[in-house]
Design goal:
This protein is of the alpha+beta class. The protein is built from nine helices and seven strands. It has one domain: 3-Layer(aba) Sandwich (Aminopeptidase), CATH 3.40.630.30. Strands 1-2-3-4-5-7-6 form a seven-stranded mixed β-sheet. The mean pLDDT is 95.
Amino acid sequence: MMDIHIRPAGREDAKFMAWLILTAGRAHVTRGIWEVILDGTEQENFKFLSLLAVTAIPHLFHYSCYLVAESDGRPVAGLGGYDPISLGYPALQQAMPEVFRQLQQPGPDPHAKKRAERVLCCIPDEAQDAWIIDSVATLPEYRRKGIVDRLLAAIIEQGRQKGFRRAQINLYIGNRPAQRAYEKHGFKIVDQKCHPDFEAEIGSPGMVRMLRNL
């Protein structure tokens, strides 16, 4: 039996957070949303996301929104949960300049906005009064051991305690293993968004939105 301890993520988890966000974004597709937007090497993308995880302004990709599953003192899986009103994409935009300052860059490259438009067009809308669960990933050697089930149960309970009435998870169309895992926890697909630009960049027709009551 593995000794798995679930805890809030901390600043010391920045590198693991970068891996988690990139890996969750890749899922079963050609490349993830962050990889399309950043368009850098894997090392450059990891650096960017590790800095993003510890900005002064919290946001949906900030360590404070995440739970980590730890085994033998090592983070092996994690996921995020956040309030889209206070910690959603507007907060992310406010935090980004700090990352570019840390990288000694004036800002995103001139083509980043166009790349972002090609993939963000399929991000599902946030349901009213929903706790958003995001960036679910596990190290390969720890998969299919029930760790994600424990993390999901913990993050769902966290949303319930914060007073949210339902939870939302978004995933790529065709990611059947993830869909089945979420359905086990009561999530159901309610709608989807598709776009040819998204499919050309990501390798999936679009994204689905799954909801469940809390």
